[in-house]
């Protein structure tokens, strides 16, 4: 076979092989699944403690739609200034039940409300974690009694109430001029009213009981 003919045959084989490779590549591209749809949500930019959320505490995170947890907070919604009920790890998605509000209270039995109270000993609040159960005591000059002028023995105002979240103010500051630490409790409406009256007339303290299961 003349050399020219052999060269033409080799060239044809090379061209045919290239065309087959291109065809296979096109077929694989057509058959390849489309990239999964993603949804942008807000997640912790770093490890966070419970308390008010500040600018920069959260960052957008893209997740596959099927991996987005229920109640996830999505941009452009802002959670800055809202109260985080419990600590979060960096990268953890933020959901509505992580924030102090109706969704968090909804996790408790019917008739339960979120009652913010301020206790005099902020160090005691540092011993608490969401889910702890405490008794709240009041002491001071005539708490709950406008006409009383003498100090009364400490009395239990609310017993066996669950801690939703705590917030200890930064050193050297006092929220609203009241000092102490803010605790949000899951109480009945009646307990919330008693706690409000006790705060107005005296100082609140706590005793800590065993943690209950949800």
How would the global form be characterised? rod-shaped
On the 0-100 scale, what is the average pLDDT?
77
Beta-strand proportion: 25-35%
Query: Order of strands in the sheet with the most strands?
Result: 5-8-7-6-9
Unreliable residue stretches: 145-149
Strand-and-helix sequence, N→C? Answer: HEEEEHEHEEEHE
Q: How many independent structural domains?
A: 2
How would you characterize the overall build of this protein?
The strands form 3 sheets. This protein has a 5-stranded antiparallel β-sheet with strand order 5-8-7-6-9. It has a two-stranded antiparallel sheet with strand order 1-3. Strands 2-4 form a two-stranded antiparallel sheet. Residues 145-149 have low confidence and may be disordered. The protein has 2 domains: 38-103, Type Iii Antifreeze Protein Isoform Hplc 12 (Alpha-Beta Complex); 108-208, no CATH class. The protein has helices at residues 3-31, 102-105, 122-125, 189-201; strands at residues 38-44, 51-52, 58-64, 83-84, 113-119, 133-141, 151-167, 181-187, 203-208. Helices cover 23% and strands 30% of the residues. With 214 residues, it is of the alpha+beta class. It starts with a helix and ends in a 6-residue tail after the last strand. The relative contact order is 0.15. The protein is rod-shaped, with a radius of gyration of 31 Å.
Feature tags:
214 residues, alpha+beta, Type Iii Antifreeze Protein Isoform Hplc 12, 2 domains, 9 strands, 23% helix
């Amino acid at each position: 076979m003349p050399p020219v003919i052999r060269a033409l045959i080799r060239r044809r084989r090379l061209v045919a092989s290239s065309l087959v490779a291109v065809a296979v590549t096109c077929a694989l591209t057509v058959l390849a699944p489309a990239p999964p749809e993603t949804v942008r949500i807000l997640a912790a930019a770093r490890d966070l403690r419970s308390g008010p959320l500040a600018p920069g505490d959260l960052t957008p995170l893209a997740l596959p739609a099927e991996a987005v947890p229920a109640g996830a907070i999505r941009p452009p919604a802002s959670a800055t200034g809202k109260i985080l009920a419990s600590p979060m790890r960096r990268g953890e998605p933020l959901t509505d039940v992580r924030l102090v509000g109706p969704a968090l209270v909804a996790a408790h039995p019917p008739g339960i409300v979120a009652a913010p109270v301020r206790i005099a000993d902020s160090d005691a609040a540092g011993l608490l974690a969401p889910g702890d159960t405490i008794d709240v005591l009041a002491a001071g000059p005539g708490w709950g009694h406008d006409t009383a002028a003498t100090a009364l023995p400490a009395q239990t105002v609310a017993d066996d109430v669950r801690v939703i979240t705590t917030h200890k103010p930064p050193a050297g500051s006092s929220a609203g001029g009241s000092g102490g630490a803010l605790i949000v409790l899951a109480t009945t409406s009646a307990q919330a009213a008693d706690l409000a009256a006790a705060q107005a007339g005296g100082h609140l303290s706590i005793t800590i009981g065993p943690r209950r299961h949800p």
